[in-house]
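Sequence only, no structure available. Ideas?
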Amino acid sequence: MVVSACWYLLTGGVGALLVPWWLTGWRADHSHAWWGAVAALGVLLIVIGVLTTVDVFVRFVRAGGTPVPGAMTERLVVTGPNGRVRNPIYVGALAIFLGETLLLQRWRMLVFSVAAWIGTAAFVHWYEEPALRRRFGTDYETYRHEVPAWRPRLRTWTSDPPTGNSRCPATPRGNGMADPDRRSMLFASYENAAVIASAIGHEQLAHPTPCPRYDVAALIDHLVEAGNRAAALGRGEPPPPGDESPHVELSDAPAQLRRAAQEAAVAWVSDFALSSTFTMPWGEEYTGATLVDMYLAELATHAWDLAKATGQLDKLDRSLALPALDGARAAIKPQYRDMIEPGSPFAPEVPLSPSAHDWERLAAFMGRNPRASLG
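Reply:
I predicted one. Tokens follow.
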């Protein structure tokens, strides 16, 4: 708390007091007839900015952290001003700078305000948002989708899920408490795979893939079979033993994947299925939520394998990678790696640089080296 308060006073004092004094000496330009009205608007902006930043600061401290970069909270804070705009402290600070610009009416303060916003926006885009995505996963993606970064919403967003009779209920997310329901992402993974399969040429069927057990043709067979198994499990049907996959003609693969997606959407529509327990052929039991995560990770990863093998990485659904990674992390235990033999059923996670994007991170978690060449 003390460190946080010192940080707040230090940064606020430098940005809102020391820099304006250095630029203007706190001498205002009173030469305009409308100076008083503009100055009054400036004072209003300053008051709004101060109240906003103090409010957000207190909420962060109460959530067990601080707004200090690198000292994030354990939970994603989405209440108060954070429910209207994703960067309320920065927006509040900019309101203070603009208010001082109007109060002093000095062009140097306007230049400083613009430069401060450009620097802050770059910091948020290149550092803070990637860090938040890594820490909070799909919770942050949902928040990011609903709440603007800089332009406040008219109504405060709430993380509570909507009510209604949707066939695929919305995933409740908020405050860093990830809900295990990723059914909608599982269904989307079928379409993602179908898009990749539809653009594969016959001359590419013998190409190797990042999954060393399969070439492109065999991986298509396996992918369709995995989609059918996920749908069958939702209906309560035990999967057959072994890992055999019936052959699928290339031209039929997209349609079969989309048909399996429809069957899965019907099979997994009941919330009861998520809490049900399923016994797999090898004797281990999983909840329905875990199976959804497992098949989401499998379908998404094998779609990446095909895209990598056939030069279609740009066609992958960008919104799918992070939920699939979250699902993989939830479902795959450390002891599963190299459990049967080296690389089976999962190879060790491949370390990546912090700049890796989400599809690369998913592939690396699943034991692939996304930067390695094939063949």
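The first helix runs from residue 2 to 24.
Hope that gets you unstuck.
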